[in-house]
Design brief:
There is one protein chain. Helix 13 packs antiparallel against helix 14. Helix content is 73%, strand content 0%. It is mainly alpha-helical and 286 residues long. The longest helix has 23 residues. It folds into two domains: 109 residues, Farnesyl Diphosphate Synthase (Orthogonal Bundle), CATH 1.10.600; 176 residues, Orthogonal Bundle (Farnesyl Diphosphate Synthase).
Length: 286
């Protein structure tokens, strides 16, 4: 299998939302974003696949060495091979690729997040890599758009945490801050053990409101003149916010099932968001 095809399959099995958020890009840029996202998926899923921290760290160390081989011109993994022409065409440094490895490494032991600020810091550390590279690859003129990309990455990671509360609980993990659990009188064991606790729905509704604030903060930082260039991020934001809305409509029952949107709904959201952004750009230009 050629490296690019490997990346396409990796992304397709990881997150179908990515497909709809890159529908309107030229094939060349879509391929670049696919490879970058495949790398993010390849590294970040190590924590899901390895129940033993020691094994996970061995795999992360292998990826550190693979990044070194990539910049030496001798990568061996299909994703790294697909990255090789990209690092020659875009200003992509080894340190940027290593950031996601370090973020996953820090997450292996699953430290408790005592405050919302600690969780927000984690979300920025984990979520920034891909979306900052996404923004740089698409191009922008206003430096505040880089700040938008950082905050948007954090918003996406926070949304994933809410959506995957039940999935993470099956692995004995919870990312909800301790101060929020205490505020809503939810013992951490009730999350991990998936206990039917009526306070959990109120807790998740609170976290959803916070997540929407992340999106508002991110979009406030996006320069008006850069919006159309940054369309894929806006499409993904629309899909993820719709997911949060759907979780709310479902009564915030995240421990019972994982909410996902249908492909046709994602396509509709992507099409509608693009239409609105094109109209907005035309009105601005006139």
């Amino acid at each position: 299998m050629v490296p690019l095809e490997y990346c396409r399959q990796k992304v397709a099995t990881r997150d179908s939302s990515f497909h709809y958020c890159t529908l309107f890009l030229p094939p060349e840029k879509r391929d670049v974003l696919t490879v970058l996202y495949a790398y993010y998926c390849e590294v970040s899923e190590i924590i899901d696949e390895c129940s033993e921290p020691a094994v996970a760290r061995i795999k992360l160390e292998w990826w550190r060495q693979e990044i070194a081989r990539l910049f030496d011109g001798s990568p061996s993994h299909p994703v790294a091979k697909a990255l090789h022409p990209i690092i020659q065409s875009y200003p992509l440094a080894a340190e940027q690729l290593l950031e996601v490895i370090e973020a996953v490494d820090a997450d292996i032991e699953q430290p408790l997040y005592n405050t919302a600020e600690e969780l927000a810091s984690y979300c920025r550390r984990v979520g920034t890599f891909y979306h900052l590279l996404l923004a740089r690859t698409l191009g922008y003129t206003d430096t505040t758009t880089g700040d938008y990309a950082r905050e948007l990455g954090a918003a996406f990671r926070f949304t994933q945490i809410i959506r995957d509360v039940g999935k993470d609980a099956q692995r004995g993990r919870t990312y909800i801050p301790m101060e929020d659990l205490q505020r809503f009188d939810v013992p951490p064991t009730n999350i991990v053990n998936r206990i039917d606790d009526p306070n959990i729905a109120a807790l998740i509704a609170f976290e959803i409101r916070r997540a929407k604030g992340f999106y508002n903060d991110a979009l406030d930082r996006l320069s008006e003149q850069d919006r159309l260039q940054q369309l894929p991020g806006l499409l993904m934001a629309a899909v993820y916010r719709a997911t949060l809305d759907e979780i709310e409509r479902d009564g915030c029952q995240v421990l019972k099932h994982r909410i996902t949107l249908s492909p046709i709904r994602k396509r509709w959201i992507a099409w509608k968001t693009r239409r609105n952004e094109v109209r907005r750009a035309r009105q601005r230009n006139h």
